[in-house]
């Protein structure tokens, strides 16, 4: 349901994609090969693709870019634009396949190799990423930045430092290069790492929060007196940033000095879990549990591992144990609630969400989103119109009276969606459809609104309209959420 956060996550990429679409059109207009297409529709195709993209008609844009590739295989930009659509739709393998097709056909290949490197890294194949990056522009900032990240993944910190230092030299004002350089320097020069993290955290960019977190962790580490604690904090910094491999040997060194160091055991268990070494992870986490059975994080991690192994009884035991140990902590309650949902234990799930919303205290965006989610669970999974309707009514009243803590248009539209869905659940199909026709006009890019409109139209026997609405919902869906709902 967290569609606002999903859109925020992809907003920068979408803007860049629209810019790329415009560049592709300019390339065609000013290319010396333009004369080939005086009788064709290459320019018109790219214009239509750019328009479709601005309307977030992703499938139409993708089809048009593929048509542009057939007209002129040598233009690399349609390959990049089409691949970026696949990336937006969380289909990195399809994106990579298309980029490699472009490598075979396009005249200019360096940008394509750079993108192939980025996608391979996203697909957890750093070796392939390095191979592709060797064919990218070796003086380019993005090449240095991606190569540095690749070396970080592979635990080659000296090479990571070299590449990322080059990136900071090429573009000294770019915060990302300073952030990743800080990570590469954590073990070798923590003071310098702190300075780089501070530089990254002082600038406004999408990674500002994680740069600030890294800065705080490094400051705490440098102030610490205990060497084992220092090393563990360094490893935590890398693991929190998504780089588990470089932490293995340092954590094992800590445990050689103190085999009962709880935090090192938990971190190493987490690292092994991230690297899909689940039996090793269980070994470390069970050792940590023996040392401190009251530490909820250990139980939570054990629950996650057992669930990944489809040992659901053990998973449930540890998820419940974690929430009992920290019964006022909403993080552990949320983990338990979502586990119950995945197991389709919806009565337990709603009970847990009720506890969670009661414990959240001050009304904020997260609390309201959880209440919306809870209301939909009552309506869709338990078919409890009384409780679902009660939540829908409370939220609608708050929205209509402008008493929401954040008078956000997107949040208000999601509450309107909930209210309309409640009307539909009560059998008020025509009233709900009128509301959805207005809602998708006001908020045309929310896939869930289109999905709900499709289901209402289906109930009214409007098969053609329902199919069109469902197609639009699938096209707008960037997370795969719509595909998991009843079709």
TrEMBL record:
Q: Which domain of life is it from?
A: Bacteria
The keyword Transmembrane helix appears for this protein = yes
Residue stretches of each TPR repeat: 262-295, 296-329
Q: Which UniProt keywords apply?
A: Membrane, Repeat, TPR repeat, Transmembrane, Transmembrane helix
> Membrane-spanning residues where?
12-30
The record's annotation in Pfam families points to: TPR_19
SMART domains xref list = TPR (SM00028)
Its recorded name reads Tetratricopeptide repeat protein
> Per the UniProt entry, what species is this protein from, by scientific name?
candidate division WWE3 bacterium CG_4_8_14_3_um_filter_42_11
């Amino acid at each position: 349901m967290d569609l606002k956060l999903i859109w925020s996550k992809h907003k920068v990429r979408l803007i860049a994609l629209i810019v790329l679409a415009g560049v592709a059109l300019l390339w065609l207009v000013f290319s010396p090969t333009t004369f080939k297409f005086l009788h064709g529709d290459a320019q018109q195709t790219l214009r239509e693709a750019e328009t479709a993209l601005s309307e977030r008609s992703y499938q139409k844009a993708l089809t048009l870019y593929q048509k542009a590739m057939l007209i002129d295989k040598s233009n690399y930009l349609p390959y990049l634009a089409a691949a970026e659509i696949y990336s937006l739709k969380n289909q990195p393998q399809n994106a990579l396949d298309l980029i490699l097709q472009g490598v075979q056909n396009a005249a200019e290949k360096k940008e394509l190799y750079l993108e192939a490197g980025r996608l391979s890294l996203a697909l957890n194949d750093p070796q392939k990423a390095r191979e592709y990056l060797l064919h990218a522009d070796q003086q380019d900032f993005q090449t240095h930045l991606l190569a540095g990240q690749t070396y970080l993944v592979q635990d080659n910190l000296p090479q990571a430092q070299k590449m990322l230092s080059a990136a900071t030299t090429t573009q000294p004002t770019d915060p990302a290069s300073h952030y990743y350089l800080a990570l590469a320097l954590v073990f070798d020069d923590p003071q310098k790492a702190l300075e780089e993290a501070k530089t990254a955290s002082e600038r406004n960019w999408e990674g500002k929060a994680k740069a600030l977190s890294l800065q705080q962790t490094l400051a705490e580490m440098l102030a610490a007196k205990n060497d084992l604690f220092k090393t563990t904090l360094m490893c935590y910094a890398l693991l929190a940033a998504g780089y588990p491999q470089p932490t293995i040997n340092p954590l094992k060194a800590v445990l050689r000095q103190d085999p009962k160091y709880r935090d090192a055991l938990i971190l190493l268990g987490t690292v092994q879990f991230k690297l899909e070494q689940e039996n090793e992870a269980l070994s470390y986490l069970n050792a940590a549990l023996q040392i401190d059975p009251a530490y909820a994080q250990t139980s939570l991690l054990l629950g996650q591992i057992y669930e990944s192994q489809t040992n659901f009884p053990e998973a449930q035991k540890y998820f419940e144990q974690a929430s009992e140990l920290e019964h006022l902590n909403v993080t552990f309650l949320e983990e338990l609630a979502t586990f119950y949902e995945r197991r389709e234990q919806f009565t337990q799930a709603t009970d847990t969400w009720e506890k969670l919303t009661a414990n959240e205290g001050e009304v904020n965006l997260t609390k309201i989103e959880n209440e919306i989610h809870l209301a939909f669970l009552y309506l869709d999974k338990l078919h409890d119109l009384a409780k679902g309707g009660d939540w829908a009514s409370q939220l609608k009243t708050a929205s209509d009276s402008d008493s929401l803590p954040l008078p956000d248009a997107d949040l208000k539209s999601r509450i309107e969606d909930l209210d309309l869905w409640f009307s539909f659940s009560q059998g008020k199909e025509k009233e709900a459809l009128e509301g959805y026709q207005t809602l998708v006009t006001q908020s045309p890019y929310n896939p869930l609104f289109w999905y709900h409109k499709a289901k209402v139209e289906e109930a009214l026997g409007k098969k053609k309209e329902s199919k069109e609405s469902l197609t639009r919902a699938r096209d707008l869906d960037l997370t795969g959420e719509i595909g998991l709902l009843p079709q």
